[in-house]
Amino acid sequence: MTVTYQYPRPSVTVDVVIFGLDMTAPPVLNVLLIRRGRKSEPYYDHWAIPGGFVNKDEDLDVAARREAVEETHANPTYIEQLKTFGAPGRDPRGHVISVAYMALVRTSEMEIQADDDAKEVAWWPVDDLSKIQLAFDHAEILTVALNRLRSKVRWQPIGIDLLPEVFSLPELQQVYEAILGHPIVRRTWRRRVAAYGVLVPAGSRRIVGDFGGRPPDLWRFDRAAYEALLKEGGEFEL
Asked: Is residue 165 annotated as part of the catalytic site, yes or no?
């Protein structure tokens, strides 16, 4: 049976805020943006969050991953639905509702490349975003995503999806400081990390030359232990 709806149907898009870390010293939290190409009207030549229209009968999560890959070649290891943005007038083309996602990637494992209708793709430090004018309401979406990430980092080991497989505790601490935007008291933070049992030893880093002291211990996340703790309702409060 054919059903006819009397109500107008707005278009639906997905936008994917992709965070990654530049692990130079100190680490810098970056977001992946595209510069809109000639086929991208409105806002040609503006920087924007990767995204696009949802295809007919396409699942939203599938659409988000597809758009991320098509426009940047980045395939996130972690992605979650963030919020729906539907203010009238947010898109000059008409009534467009966007379902925004937040993704985390290990930048060392990503070979980004502009594709589809993207003119350019680049990592931008989150602290530099005020220097550019973003398309649509993407500045608002980025603010919501950054607030979500900073909220999550207080109760989840976000480094699972940002750090290399093996890392030192100072590197892990620097990741959290880069996300939060302020220093962390080392002794208190490390005590809390150890108490949750989500890290396992991964050997020691060999240091060339004699710098005194012993090489820093290396660690990796025990994902199974972390996921089990979440199922039990545990919180990390790092």
From this structure: no
